[in-house]
């Protein structure tokens, strides 16, 4: 009589073969794959290779094996009862999907569902019940669940990096608003802080709280009063501002000065000299040591009077003297359309190069009286 058996000797060529019936069929059928052939599991390619693959559960006409003088075979209905089972057609044996991919160290050496496969169809019900209750199997399922969760949400380091990036974005948004408040005061030529700092502790960025915005009894200067106004009008700003660390709210006098020092105003005018050469004068207006100063930097010879030629001359001159146009916070020219026009004028081109609002302010010194 012929039957399908798993034996150590014939696995190297094929996992399923026909052999003559031995004297004790039950003892052979129940003999698991030899421990010396544990590495054979690495060569099984008809079941899942990694945890990225789903459990392999084919539904076929399963080969029958004589066990206790009965022809027995694997039943596909066991998939529903034990979803972790996967069947190897090549070996005519079953494996535990979870324990194969997430085994414990002690489990690898002795668990046939990991190393070689199980094919005793007579006792498979008892084996699956016992295996389903083992601690190692439950741990493997937990590890698989954790792996799925990590795959969806990312690793712990990825989640931390994501939170850090989100916080950086929020902090930058707050800092932009603070910078706009400082630049507003500078453009309007108004002081940032009150004349007397009698309530010095409230100016300390470690103690300042936007919740003070409801107080109207103390005038804390233009800058902090604008911060208060933003907190009243914008709940999102107020919430994020109060979440900033107490030692880095970016509102201290030192920060205000640093912002102002990083900015400047560009003042230009052009005229023709006696030799009939068009020359453009360049001046800058800036704050230094709490004092507003204006300085003449030099002349730029112009070969053409269109907006692009004048813009190129300005940028060339600023680069030569080591000034970055991105630090410019406003522009001041005469009323000529080539300088102050709403389209393709010098002020539009400078604003594009500066990559900030950099508004145009009419130079009243060039107005006719």
Automatic annotation (TrEMBL):
InterPro entries recorded: DUF4371 (IPR025398), Znf_TTF (IPR006580)
TTF-type domain mapped to chain residues: 70-162
SMART domains in alphabetical order: ZnF_TTF
Cross-referenced PANTHER family: OS05G0311600 PROTEIN, PTHR45749
Protein name: TTF-type domain-containing protein
């Amino acid at each position: 009589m012929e039957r399908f058996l798993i034996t150590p000797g014939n696995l190297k060529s094929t996992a399923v073969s026909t052999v003559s019936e031995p004297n004790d069929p039950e003892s052979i059928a129940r003999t698991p794959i030899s421990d010396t052939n544990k590495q054979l599991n690495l060569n099984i390619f008809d079941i899942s290779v990694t945890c990225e693959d789903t459990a392999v559960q084919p539904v076929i006409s399963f080969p029958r094996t004589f066990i206790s003088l009965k022809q027995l075979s694997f039943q596909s209905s066991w998939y529903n009862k034990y979803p972790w089972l996967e069947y190897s057609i090549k070996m005519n044996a079953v494996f535990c999907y979870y324990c194969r991919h997430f085994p414990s160290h002690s489990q690898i050496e002795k668990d046939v569902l990991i190393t070689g496969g199980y094919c005793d169809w007579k006792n498979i019900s008892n084996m699956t019940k016992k295996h389903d209750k083992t601690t190692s199997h439950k741990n493997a399922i937990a590890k698989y669940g954790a792996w799925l969760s990590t795959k969806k949400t990312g690793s712990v380091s990825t989640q931390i990096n994501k939170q850090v990036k989100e916080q950086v974005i929020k902090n930058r948004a707050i800092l932009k608003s603070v910078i706009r408040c400082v630049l507003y005061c500078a453009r309007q030529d108004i002081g940032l802080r009150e004349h007397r700092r009698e309530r010095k502790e409230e100016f300390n960025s470690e103690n300042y709280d936007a919740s003070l915005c409801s107080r109207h009894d103390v005038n804390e200067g233009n800058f902090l009063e604008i911060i208060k106004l933003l907190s009243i009008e914008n709940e999102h700003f107020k919430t994020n501002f109060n979440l900033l660390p107490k030692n880095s709210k970016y509102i201290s006098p030192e920060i205000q000065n640093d912002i102002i020092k990083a900015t400047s105003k560009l003042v230009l005018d052009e005229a023709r000299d006696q030799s009939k050469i068009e020359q453009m004068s360049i001046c800058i207006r800036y704050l230094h040591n709490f004092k507003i100063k204006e300085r003449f930097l030099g002349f730029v010879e112009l070969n053409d009077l269109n907006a692009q030629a004048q813009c190129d001359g300005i940028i060339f001159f600023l680069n030569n003297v080591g000034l970055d146009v991105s630090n410019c916070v406003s522009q001041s020219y005469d009323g000529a359309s080539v300088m102050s026009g709403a389209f393709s004028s010098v002020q539009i081109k400078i604003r594009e190069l500066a990559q900030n609002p950099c508004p145009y302010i009419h130079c009243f010194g060039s107005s006719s009286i």
